[in-house]
Structures are given as structure tokens and as C-alpha cells.
Amino acid sequence: MTAFYGVELPTAFMLGTAQYPSPAILGAAFRESAASVATVSVRREAAGAQAGEGFWRLIRDLGVHVLPNTAGCYSPGEAITTAKMARELFETDWIKLEVIGHSDSLQPDPFGLVEAAASLCRDGFKVFPYTTEDLVLADRLLDAGCEVLMPWGAPIGTGLGLVNPYGLRSLRAQYPDVPMVIDAGLGLPSQAAQAMEMGFDALLLNTAVAKAGDPVAMAVAFAKAIEAGKLARNADPMEPRDMAAPSTPLIGKAFLQ
Amino acid sequence: MKISINGVAKDITSTNLAAVLHEAGYGDARVATAVNGHFVPVGQRASCPIEAGDQLEIVAPRQGG
Questions:
Q1: How far, in Å, are B24, B28, B30, B54 from residue B10 at the CA level?
Q2: Is it true that domain B2-59 has CATH number 3.10.20.30?
Q3: Is this complex scored with an ipTM above 0.90?
Q4: CB-CB neighbors (< 8 A) of A69 in chain B
Q5: b/e string for B10-19 if b means 16 or more Cβ within 10 A?
Q6: Which of A161, A164, A256, B21 has its CA 20 to 30 A from that of A209?
């Protein structure tokens, strides 16, 4: 299993905690799928609400690694302050760094992302940057101190799958030793299997599970697909070819008129 | 004096962040804080002065993707 900042996860499944029909269903999705990382966020708290404490207890009781995010941040400064608040609240140096640059596609702002990543890495954070398949951006993020990359499969919440397989294959091939997580855009377990077959180390998703008619069943389906894709990758798949090749031996075939 | 807490104007009398949190009703809540966009760790709240016009952000753990 690939290590993420020195941590070997029991499964390659990272799951978000938002948009579930109920906390009970959220908990069941994690337990049944054996997802090993939960992404979380920080949001404004009303005086006397204690909502944060209740959610924190729920997540803590799952017994998984916690990966706070900086979702919704559009500037490096905003993301850095959010990361620091998250580190204190969740007691972890891990941060899923999002610096959004485009409100319709939620595409990362590459310039702000690198700036924030460099600052946070200097400050001791273990940064998981939400990025694209761009090779130059990957290079800059690694130079900034990131030891993990999280390229998108498709824009957040779309469920479109891997919209740029060529770009993702290139990224994987260019940095074979960098742990990489496909983050966002997956809608179906078959897409998860495809990503793992391409050699990615883990998957992070939320909407595809939380918004399914049966989130627990869908979480299990993704878990099985991720495992299948990983097994297939390790089994060294055959090379595709254009011309047919019979699988049944021709030698010994009866000669019949 | 008037300050902003999570985007809402409030009248408070306390002059440091720890006291403001208590006065505003947060008590021992599991929250993190920023003043005028800058993170203030738990251990520095009592020594963090609050002045009229300051903008406080008070956040807690929430669901995220």
C-alpha cells in the first residue's frame, strides 16, 4: 500500500462526509465500505449551537484518518487561515488544500494553489493539493513541498468520471513515485476502477455516494471497484491490440466440410 | 463597542478575544478563531486585543468533501 506522508492506509478509499441523508447513513457508509479517510471542513458556528462538537464526535468514533479541507476558499490567504483553524480543531497536520479559481467549474487557481501550498508546507502542514492534471503545476507543487498530489477526475460534483484520461496517464507516468489521489468528479464505481487501473494510489469522492439513492450500497460498490482496479493494476494487464487474436487454439480443430 | 462576529454586528464590552467568546455565549465550545482574517490559536486568545470594528470569524467542525 502507498504511504501518504508516511501513513499506510488500510484501504485506498477516501470518502467525504457532506450531503448524506442522515448522520446514521454517513456512519454506515464508512463502516460498510471500510473507507479509511474522512474529509471534513470548518464552517461558522452560532453561539450555543454546539453543532461542531456533535459532528466531531461522530467523525472521531469512525476511527478513520481525518483530512480537513479548505473548500470554498478563493485566495491563498483565506485558504491558509482556514487550514490553520482546521489544524487546531481536528488536531491533524493533514490538509486538503483547495484554492478555487473559477466559480462555475470550481477549477483550482494554479497560482494561488502553489502560493498557499508553499506557505503551509513551510508551516509544517502535510498538504494534499486539489489540482488538475497539468504537469507544470504538479512540478511547482512538488517544489513547494507537497509529497502528495490530488488531480481532479472531473469538476467537483459532476460525476463525469475521468474526462482527460490522456492528461491523467501523462501525470501518472511523469511522476511514478509520487502518491496520487484522484479527487472529485467521479460518479460511478466503474470510473473508480478505471482510475486505479491507471495506477493512481487512492480515490477521494463524496457526492457520488452521498447523493445515491442508497448511499451505503454505493459506498460498498465503490470500495469493491477500487479494490478490483488495484488488483488489476498489480496483475499487469495485457496490452490492447487492433487485430483479433483467437483465444481458443486452432491446432487440433476438427476439419469439417 | 461594535464588532462583527461571523458577519453579524454585535455590541460587546470585553476587550480580549477569550473574554469576547465568553460574553458572546460560546463558553467552552470547540471552535477556532480568526480576527481580521488572521488565525488566533486557543493559547493566544486571552492576549489578543479586540477593538471596535474588528471582524471575528468563529468556526467549528463540519461536513466536507
A1: 9, 20, 21, 10
A2: yes
A3: yes
A4: 64-65
A5: eebeeeebbe
A6: A164
The answer to whether the beta carbons of residues A82 and A42 sit under 8 Å apart is: yes
Which pLDDT does position B62 carry in this prediction? Answer: 96
Q: Taking the model in full, what pTM does it have?
A: 0.94
A-chain residues within 8 Å CB-CB of B65?
16-19, 39, 41, 69, 71, 156, 184, 206-207
Q: How far apart are CA B23 and CA A146, in angstroms?
A: 41
Spatial distance between the Cα atoms of B12 and B23, rounded to a whole number of angstroms: 7
Whether the CB of B43 is below 8 Å from some CB of chain A: the reply is no
Among B31, B39, B63, select the one facing A45 at the smallest CB separation: B31
pLDDT digits (tens, 9 = 90+) for A38-80: 999 999 999 988 888 999 999 999 999 999 999 999 999 999 9
Phi-psi region of A82 (alpha: psi -120 to 50; beta: other; left: phi over 0): alpha
Give the catalytic positions of A in this structure.
Answer: 96
The alpha-carbon gap from B53 to the nearest alpha carbon of chain A, in Å, equals: 19
Q: Between the CA of residue B14 and those of A30, A84, B2, B51, B55, what are the distances in Å?
A: 43, 25, 11, 9, 14
CA-based torsion, A192, A38, A147, A179: positive or negative: negative
Are the C-beta atoms of residues B3 and B52 closer than 8 Å to each other?
A: yes
Cβ neighbors of A147 (< 8 A, separation 6 or more) are A4, A5, A126, A178, A179
As a whole number of angstroms, the distance between CA A116 and CA A127 comes to 10
Q: pLDDT digits over A185-211, tens only?
A: 999 999 999 999 999 999 999 999 999
Domain ranges, ordered by start, for chain B: 2-59
